[in-house]
Amino acid sequence: MKAPRRPTDRVSWNRSNKTRSNRMIKKNLVMAAALFFAGAASAEDITSTEDYMCDDGSELSVAYISTSEGSAFAVLLVDDGMHIASIAVSASGVRYVGTEDDRYSWHEKRGEGILTVPDRNERKCSLQEAATATVNVDDVHAAVAGNAECDVDTAVHDDHVVFTVNGVTEGQEMCNLTVAAGKGQELSLEWLSSSPHGAWIVDPEYTSFTDTSPYAVKQDGDIAVGIRLPRAKAIESTSPEAFSVAITVK
Predict the structure, then answer these.
(1) Total domain count for the chain?
(2) At which of 127, 147, 171 does a domain end?
(3) Which of 148, 133, 145 is nearest to 222 (CA)?
(4) For the segment 203-233, what is each residue's pLDDT rounded down to a tens digit?
(5) DSSP assignments along 118-140, one per residue
(6) CATH number of the domain encompassing residue 31
(7) Which residues, 6 or more positions from 237, have their beta carbon under 8 angstroms from its beta carbon?
(8) Do 106 and 189 reside in the same domain of the chain?
(9) What is the CATH number of the domain that holds 179?
(10) Alpha-carbon distance values, 35 to 42, 65, 66, 71, 97 (Å)
């Protein structure tokens, strides 16, 4: 039997999504303005918050509000300022008009709108697509160990990472893969070739990964996966068995 291998092929990265973070900050500011300045009784009055990109390169965030008293208005976050506009009569779409002192207005229909700014040209603005959630783990890594020959390749995507493990086991040899994952993420398993092998979560708890994929991560930390032949097959085995498996953290 081969000597146990030391962990190898460690891969780590720190990926942040500044765009998504900035949008969340703006959304919170708009909601706060709606609650404290626009007279919304509670967060339930805020029917939606949306982000728009305008043709001059500026960004517009809007909180749409409908109160239980029947009032409807929009809070506009644009040009480093907040502007409150009340709903007005419109032949098409929905139009919000500011006060005489603050003459910003917003006319929206099906994700497209016209922002009117005092003493400036009108801006055409389009609804931005929702940002895709991205991998946001401070120290994501993979390491292979155990007494079997195996290696790991890592592919990082915007919202998930795929660890492809290739190896050969003989008898009761095991390939151990350790990956970092965050609470609320999932690990899923896909066999890339026909193989008699099985996979088990061995830490932080012991359970069959083959039967429970996707596996829900309950806390931040390392997840250890063991890949080996089932016991009966391992006893009967007379030659090495190859495997190829993809484990996705998302």
Answers:
(1) 2
(2) 127
(3) 145
(4) 888 888 888 788 888 888 888 899 999 988 8
(5) TTS--EEEEEPPPPPP----TTB
(6) 2.40.128.200
(7) 170, 171, 229
(8) no
(9) 2.60.120.380
(10) 6, 10, 12, 14, 19
User: Is 3 a member of any domain?
Assistant: no
pLDDT tens digits along 49-76: 788 999 999 999 888 887 777 778 888 8
Domain span at residue 176 reads: 134-249
Tokens of 176: 């151990």
Integer angstrom CA distances of residue 158 from 19, 21, 111, 131, 132: 13, 15, 25, 11, 8
For residue 90, give both structure tokens: 């419109």
Task: Say which range, 45-54, 182-191, 237-246, has the weakest mean pLDDT.
Answer: 45-54
Instruction: Look at residues 139, 5, 115 and name the one whose alpha carbon lies nearest to residue 57.
Output: 115
The answer to whether residues 120 and 175 belong to one domain is no
Find tokens 């970092």 and name the residue.
180
Write down the pTM of the prediction: 0.47
Q: In angstroms, rounded to a whole number, what is the distance separating the alpha carbons of residues 64 and 79?
A: 18
Please indicate, yes or no, whether residues 219 and 192 belong to a single structural domain of this protein: yes
Minimal CA–CA distance to 41: which of 62, 70, 61?
A: 70
CA distance 32 to 63: 10
Neighbours of 68 (CB within 10 A): 10
> Is residue 42 in some structural domain?
yes
- Residue 210 domain-assigned (yes or no): yes
